Amino acid sequence: MQHRKLLNEELNRLTTEEYKEAEKLPIAVVLDNVRSLNNIGSVFRTSDAFLLSKIYLCGITATPPHREIHKTALGAEESVDWQYFEETTDAVKALKAEGYTIISVEQVENSISLETFAITPGEKYAFIFGNEVKGVQQEVIDLSDSCIELPQFGTKHSFNISVTAGIVLWQVISPLFHNHQTRK
After folding, report:
1. Three-state SS for 65?
2. Does some domain include residue 7?
3. Which helix (H) or strand (E) holds 169?
């Protein structure tokens, strides 16, 4: 079997305008004091790829427009809706008021291992990713409905946030992927 790399124009990607009008998955991302501009940009790009509803940028997390965010977002900061909150707890309270189930991605007592976690189709979820060193704040964990954790087997205590976001978001949306594809 031969494999030919597809040209960009063969990928049938949405324009920014089409993306903004498209039906989004009912999943939001919350960045809790993420300091790396590259991580922020990468999460924008991942959120765009998975057609997520919104990103909440909180605390020290930088906001677009920013040259360093753009380097990894590659324009996704223009397509994905975002909102800034000075306090992550305020973002979480706003999301709860809108009916979102709040899931912190953090190593905590009684966490749920990612491979056993599943979302309920039709429900709204917000996934919180924390600071590169300190993780998700305890006050935010206290407001969460649940916490999930990625199994790890090496010497390090965590993945990079952009890697974690990609793994978690793909794991939770992959069951929805087929349904989304059939609605097109």
Report:
1. coil
2. no
3. helix 161-183
Q: Dump pLDDT digits (tens) for 133-148.
A: 999 999 999 999 999 9
pLDDT at residue number 178: 63
CB 72 within 8 A of CB 38: yes
Please report the pLDDT score of residue 182 as a whole number: 46
Q: What is the mean pLDDT of each run of 10 residues along the chain (184 residues)?
A: 91 92 96 98 97 98 97 95 98 98 97 96 96 97 98 91 97 78 48
Distance (Å, whole) CA 57 – CA 30 = 6
Residue that is written with structure tokens 């599943």 in the block: 118
DSSP letter for each residue of 73-142: HTTHHHHS-EEEESSHHHHHHHHHHTTEEEEEES--TTPEEGGG--PPTT-EEEEEEEBTTTBS-HHHHH
Give the span between the Cα atoms of 184 and 125, in whole angstroms.
Answer: 22
Distances (CA, A) of 104 to 31, 59, 130, 184: 10, 16, 8, 31
Which domain does 43 fall in, by range?
A: 22-183
In a domain, 54, yes or no: yes
How many domains are contained in the chain? 1
Q: Tell me the CATH number at 95.
A: 3.40.1280.10
pTM score over 0.85: yes
